[in-house]
Amino acid sequence: xxxxxxxxxxxxxxxxxxxxxxxxxSTESGIKDFRSKDGLYNMKYKFPPEEILSxxxxxxxxxxFYRFYKDKLNSLDVLPNSxxxxxxxxxxxxxxxxxxxxxxxxLHQKALSKNVLELHGTVYKNHCMxxxxxxxxxxxxxxxxxxxxxxxxxxxxxxxxxxxxLDDNIVNAAIKYIENCEMLIVAGTSLTVYPASSFVRYFKxxxxxxINNDVTAYDHIADLVIHEKxxxxxxxxxxxxxxNIK
Length: 246
Prior knowledge:
By secondary structure, the protein is of the alpha/beta class. About 30% of the residues lie in helices and about 15% in strands. It has a domain at about 1-30 and about 80-120 and about 165-245: TPP-binding domain (Rossmann fold).
């Protein structure tokens, strides 16, 4: 409770906040994370998920890739949760300047957040590898087997797979927001995936807050660390707001 109150005071005090989030932001919506004991990487498949989600595997075995992708990464019918909505509210109030996300599920946009930097791409954009034509997520997820373009080419999701570089423009924008913000909230991420995990080092502002179930490598430099489920933290924050507790 004391930590949530501290968090509320920090948010009230700052007008240039950046949120940097990972899989833990979406678990409240029913989307599985990757590295927890119940996460995707601990499920048993014919191939390890880390291998399936690599560029080499996609090119060599698109059928098996799409079997996993359509089964586990389809967020078309998933709704944003209280965390996404809280961030949209902060953005509307002019406090939150950017959301930097490692998620590919598009839930921040569904919650009507405007300035979302998707480090690892999105399931909502797809392109033909042969002619470049764009395709919707509906087309890809509702296709039989490997989705193909009308030209015959294989369609690839605009998702950053292992072995692929991040988009330089998005990376540079993310770093700039972090460098210039007053408060950085890092939440729902273990901060183990490079290079995104290194972004925290660019922060030079007033308050670094880390909210995550488990310990991260950056806990020791944070001004506030909350080891709790993100949904629970937001619920408590909203209660404090409602009761006007300062």
